[in-house]
Structures are given as C-alpha cells and as structure tokens.
Amino acid sequence: MGLAPAEIDPHLASTLRLDPQQQVASAGSCFAQRIAEALQQSGYGYMVAEDGPAFLSAEERKALGYGVYSARYGNLYTTLQLLQLFDRAYGHFDPVEPLWRNSEGAYLDPFRPNVQPGGFASASECLWDRRAHLAAVRRMFENLDVFIFTLGLTEAWLSSEDGAVFPVCPGSGLGGEFDPARHRYHNFSVAEVCEQLDQFVHRLAAVNPRAQIILTVSPVPLMATFEQRHVLQATTYSKSVLRVACEETIRRHSHVHYFASYEIVTATGDSQSYFAPDRRTVLPAAVQHVIACFRHQYMGDAAPVVRAPAARNEQAAALPAQPMCDEQLVMEALARHTQAGT
C-alpha cells in the first residue's frame, strides 16, 4: 500500500531466470515488439533466426520486417496463428489460400502480408521467401531456450475451406479479395484458445524439450469490433478470454510462465499517464514500467523504479516510433464489411 503506480510490480518471486547466454525468442501482437526491443537492448541473447541480407543496412532490414521479431512472421495476433505457424513450418499444414495480389499487381503472402512493403515482384519470389522463412522458424523453435508470446486478439478471419487464420481480413488495404464463400469471421472462445495454446506447448516440447515459455497479454484495446456491440465490451471479452487461457495453461504446464504486462498497464497506472488521448496508444511511461518489471522478474535486476510520468503533452512528444502494426488495416476492413453487411 502507499506505492506510486510506477513502483508497483504485480509479481511474486519468479521460478525462471534468464541467463545472458540463453537464446530468447519472441512473437505476438504489436505490443510484443516493445518487449523484443527491450531484450535486444539489454545485452541478453535475443534470438534472430532470420536477420535479412547482409548488404542491407540495419534500418533497411527492419523496414522489411527483419529483426522486428525472432523471425520474419510479422505480428501474430491470435493463438491459432502461432499454432498454424508451427504446423506450416514443419509441413503439417499447407493452407489452400492462394497468394494475394495488391492494387499494383504485386504478390503477397496471405499469412504475413505486411513484411514486404509493396509486395513481391513474382509468385516464385514470394514462395521462395516463404520457404526460407519457414526454415528460419524451424531453426528458431529448435534452438531457442525461452519463447515469449504476447496474446493480442480473439477476433479473426478464417478460411472456410481449411480453417487457415489470417493476420488481416482478405481484401483489406494490404491486398487479397474478400469472398464470403471462402472467408469467415470468428471470435475464439476460452476453450478454443486454451486448446490452441496446449497444442502449441506440446508441439514445441516435441522439437525442443528444454524450451521455457513466457505468456503475456497485450494491454492495447481493440480499435473496433465486427460484432454488434460496443468496442469496450468486445475488448473486455477478448482480454478476459486471453488472460484466463494464460492462467489455465500455466496451471497445466510447469515450464510455462505468465508475465503481467496487461495488469501493469491497465491496473497499476492512471489512464492519464499510461494511455494517449486516443485511449489505445500505450505511452512511454507505461512501456518503461512494463520493461522494468520484466527485467526485475526474469533478469534479476533491482526492484523496478520508473521515473515519474511526464506531463501528458511531453509524453505525446516523447512517443517512440510506433511498432509495425496491421490492426489499423484490420479494423478499416472490418468497418467496410460491417457497412456492406458481409
């Protein structure tokens, strides 16, 4: 009691400590990029299995999605995306969805349409890049020591033909064409998310028995919802499902851990300091608080102390470069389909 918001760490002693020599990989929604950035700057062994051509500068590689995460998969918003990524990497699932085309006729990988700005010049180039990417994903899963996954959403678009899940709605600003006969909306339940997480935990253990897993939930609210209800209700449902699924998973598996980034941002700070006026953008003070708690929890650093939150206008000016995020396109497409009644 009596602690300032930035001094609160909602964790007890961790059973997991990261060693600087360990290889730590990560994936997840937009907010997961903040944890990846902190790990890369920490001196710990952040694993990048797909780091891009050597002739490109660091800035050019990042613009192409290299090093944003441990492999070039872009944002993984749902647990089914993570599970299917694993299955596609090991040849257990080959979706029927064809390559997408953008407005300029370039080719896009439907399962990571935002990693190649402007798209690929040919279908063969896109497919070659996909094969190289999935090989890197296999290397990542087989060689990592710790895998951090940030759960972001429960709402998604699926293929009606084989259940493949997409990071964005087909026909969004990135490319592809929405076909109501082939594509459908779905909002995952607690049972579905728990089952997907459980399957992933077992699959990862089969190829890498030493792997530890850290689960966390993104604190970023939904921008909009496809369902006929207020977005605040949709956000509460989505985050509740994800949080409960994390809890169920860590109770079943001793090598799976939970990091409370969602609670740190939504429950310990005041809304004026931790969210921008749009009520979605997480401000630097909140990110600093999350990273300080992560370092304390898993790296053995001193108790987290974050500087007092800046004035609101100062924080807006101090916002770091925003993470690569498809959600704006996701929600714009959602709005179009809602208006069209599809």
The total strand number stands at: 9
Oligomer: single chain
Q: Judging from the principal axes of the Cα atoms, what is the shape?
A: globular
- Estimate what percentage of residues fall within beta strands: 5-15%
Give the SSE string. Answer: EHHHEEHEEEEHEHEHHHHH
Would you tell me the overall average pLDDT?
85
Ends distance: 51 Å
Which stretches of 5+ consecutive residues score pLDDT under 50?
303-323, 337-342
Q: Helical element count?
A: 11
> What's the alpha carbon Rg, rounded to whole Å?
19 Å
Main structural class: alpha/beta
The helix content is 25-40%
Biggest beta sheet attributes: 4 strands, parallel
As laid out across the biggest beta sheet, the strand order is 1-4-8-9
Structural write-up:
This protein is of the alpha/beta class and 342 residues long. Helices cover 39% and strands 11% of the residues. The protein is built from eleven helices and nine strands. It has helices spanning 32-40, 58-63, 79-89, 123-143, 190-207, 231-252, 261-268, 271-274, 284-298, 312-318, 327-340; strands spanning 24-28, 100-101, 107-108, 146-151, 155-159, 165-166, 183-187, 212-217, 256-258. The protein has a four-stranded parallel β-sheet, sandwiched between helices. A three-stranded antiparallel β-sheet has the order 6-5-7. A hairpin with a 5-residue loop joins strand 5 and strand 6 (165-166). Helix 3 (79-89) crosses helix 4 (123-143), helix 3 runs parallel beside helix 5 (190-207) and helix 5 packs across helix 6 (231-252). The longest helix has 22 residues, at 231-252. The chain is globular and about 60 Å long. It starts with 23 loop residues before the first strand and ends with a helix. The model is unreliable at 303-323 and 337-342 (pLDDT under 50).
